[in-house]
Design brief:
Layout lengths: L7 E8 L2 E10 L1 H12 L5 E11 L1 H14 L2 E3 L3 H10 L6 E3 L2 H6 L1
Parallel strand pairs: 2-3, 3-4, 4-5
Antiparallel strand pairs: 1-2
Helix pairs in contact: 1-2
Length: about 110
């Protein structure tokens, strides 16, 4: 059988009613779908911390845009490579990006 090794990690924590998801590694389709799934079971504020992300794919960018527009996803502390990619893709304007989890929770 083919053993699929996840190229990302998603750690989930609750903080004052907000769902904080910490992503690390690659943020691609699998990671985007995982975030979407976690958000689906949480009704409050959702924050995605991207400080430890090393690479984001075009599909990952598309997921961020979709979840931000459709579900109000907030992005906290994105790594420089993430910011650069979002900027190149021209989507950073439509995303809710904050410097920290705290700032993102408060919106």
């Amino acid at each position: 059988g083919v053993r699929v090794v996840a190229t990302y990690e998603l750690i989930e924590e609750e903080s004052e009613g907000a769902l904080i998801l910490r992503a690390s590694g690659k943020f691609d389709r699998e990671a985007g779908e995982a975030v979407e799934t976690q958000m689906g079971s949480h009704s409050g504020t959702c924050v995605l911390n991207m400080a430890e992300v090393q690479y984001i794919s075009s599909t990952g960018v598309a997921f961020l845009a979709k979840l931000s527009a459709g579900k109000g996803l907030r992005i906290a502390a994105p790594a420089e490579c993430v910011l650069n990619t979002l900027s190149l893709a021209g989507v950073e304007r439509i995303l809710k990006i904050f410097a920290s989890d705290e700032a993102a929770k408060q919106g």
